[in-house]
Automatic annotation (TrEMBL):
It comes from Paenibacillus radicis. GO terms for molecular function: mannitol-1-phosphate 5-dehydrogenase activity. HAMAP family: Mannitol_dehydrog. This is Mannitol-1-phosphate 5-dehydrogenase. Its EC number is 1.1.1.17. It is an enzyme of class 1 (oxidoreductase).
Amino acid sequence: MIAVHFGAGNIGLGFIGLLLSESGYDVKFVDVNEERVALINERGEYKVTLANEAGEDFVVKGVSAINGRDEEQVAKAIAEADIVTTAVGVGALPYLAGSIAKGIELRLQAGAKPIPFIACENAIGGSTMLKGHVLGKLSPELRERAESVASFPDAAVDRIVPLQQHEDPLQVTVEPFCEWVIDRSALPADFPTMQHVKYVDKLGPYIERKLFTVNTGHCSAAYLGYLQGYETIQEAMQDEGITAVLGEVLGETGQVLVRTHGFDEAEHGRYVEIIMDRFRNPYLTDEVVRVGRSPIRKLSANDRLVRPLLLAYELGIDTPGLIKAIAAALSFNFAEDAEAVEVQHGLTENGIGKTITHYTGIGEEHPLHPAIVRQYETLHQRQEA
Ligand SMILES: NC(=O)c1ccc[n+]([C@@H]2O[C@H](COP(=O)([O-])OP(=O)(O)OC[C@H]3O[C@@H](n4cnc5c(N)ncnc54)[C@H](O)[C@@H]3O)[C@@H](O)[C@H]2O)c1
Ligand SMILES: O=P(O)(O)OC[C@@H](O)[C@@H](O)[C@H](O)[C@H](O)CO
């Protein structure tokens, strides 16, 4: 069986590639990093190390790679694949659409069986977004027939994989925990079950639980930690002021999740505790600037900060913690992050009120808007003092 996986980065190598290989797939990575592609082809294997006391190693064998800019080769690989997955970042999904559409066209010509295309990104409806980009590249006639060879099940993926510090550019250290949840209703009939994957009939509750707990908590620790001058999540988690805000934030998103999806409160409390322990993992060095990366994406209306904030508002839940996290996100002035630079420019040019509306979609008339402005101003008065 052949898997084509877009993105030979941290999650691609350290999570999805590893699990696909354990389920019997030969993994063909597609990446735009030419050096990485060449090295994977030269070696045909790479090492994954667990971030725990034992530090166990897994060697993933039988791997190869294709340059993502070679659309013809990528399409040919897709024509022969049994599954296609991605972990490139949600913003890069449009750039995969051309070669995927060509691969679908080849499958249609060959009368090939249907296969799933699964976006393993941190977003609600990632595969559905990919589907939209791909269908946009097909003619109306092919678009109608595409469903006979391709389906796009949404998924939630969870494993903390920090920026790597190994001499070997292909070695990845990953946390031991991992969770890959796939919407089974969109899988082709008789699709072989993969090891370590949880199949569900409705993905909504799982992706929201993951995004609004792991990722909301993670970016809150990152933005608050950055403001305090910490370099890693592990350092930020030692700060009682930060963990107190994290407690507020995850209490608020927890109430939203319990009330919206009916999760058991006590069980959700245990889920949160496990996540806090994962953030503290002393065998990981996870930089706050990685976790806080792309603040425009993280501040957008459907993502980990604003969506739970607005859901909480509708449910009448107070959100002092989420408001602190959003004010900290707006203050993330890391000069090497293009989105952070853009937000800071917006603040200088247009002021806090308009900047909030521009990036979060929360209008000045919304009762939460002045609360975010006040929190942002308090934060900056405190910093200047
Ligand atoms: N690292 C984590 O802890 C983690 C956990 C769960 C989910 N995710 C999600 O997984 C995705 C990838 O994150 P990551 O941490 O592995 O990032 P990464 O930067 O380590 O890897 C992304 C890879 O995609 C490649 N890429 C970018 N554009 C491409 C294109 N057009 N075609 C082919 N390859 C392309 C890059 O060269 C890079 O190798 C993101 O959506 C992220 O939110 C990350
Ligand atoms: O990948 P992002 O930028 O959406 O979020 C940064 C981290 O929170 C994220 O990568 C986590 O490590 C991961 O989602 C854990 O499963």
